[in-house]
Amino acid sequence: MLLGDGRSMAQRKLMQGLVSRIAIGVFGLLTVAMILLAIFDDRGALAIREKHQQLEELNRDIDDATQKNEEFRKEINALRSDHDAIEKVAREQLKLVKPGEIVIQTPEDSPSK
User: Lower CB density within 10 Å: C or N end of the chain?
Assistant: First the structure.
């Protein structure tokens, strides 16, 4: 009987070792799978990084638009009240001149055809 118990004891130890190795292997595979999901999932680290970059770009665009709006606001206020600003726009954009002025256009100033 001892021989039979000895074999079953050895088989049990072998089975326990095999089961523990399988458990460690399964645990390792699950850990790797969870890490891969945490990185590559649509809510993972890479997606979060990409969204963060998009947010930074949008914030830069907002800052640029805010700055342009402020410049336009200043220009509008100047055109409402500053006669020099009005005259500058009239001369440069509308090509208007004061009575009695003579305008000489050089070839560089003439519009291209």
Answer: C
Dist. CA 71–CA 16, nearest whole Å: 77
Of 109, 89, 82, 87, residue with least CA distance to 98 = 87
Structure tokens that stand for 56 in this block: 């930074």
Q: What is the pLDDT of residues 41-92, one digit of tens each?
A: 888 888 899 999 999 999 999 999 999 999 999 999 999 999 999 999 888 8
Q: Where are the domains of the chain?
A: 1-40, 42-97
What would the two tokens of residue 90 be? 């009239």
CB 94 within 8 A of CB 104: no
The count of residues in the chain is 113
Give the separation between CA 38 and CA 47, rounded to whole angstroms: 10
CA nearest to 65, candidates 77, 57, 89: 57
Among candidates 56, 58, 38, which has minimal Cα distance to 46? Answer: 38
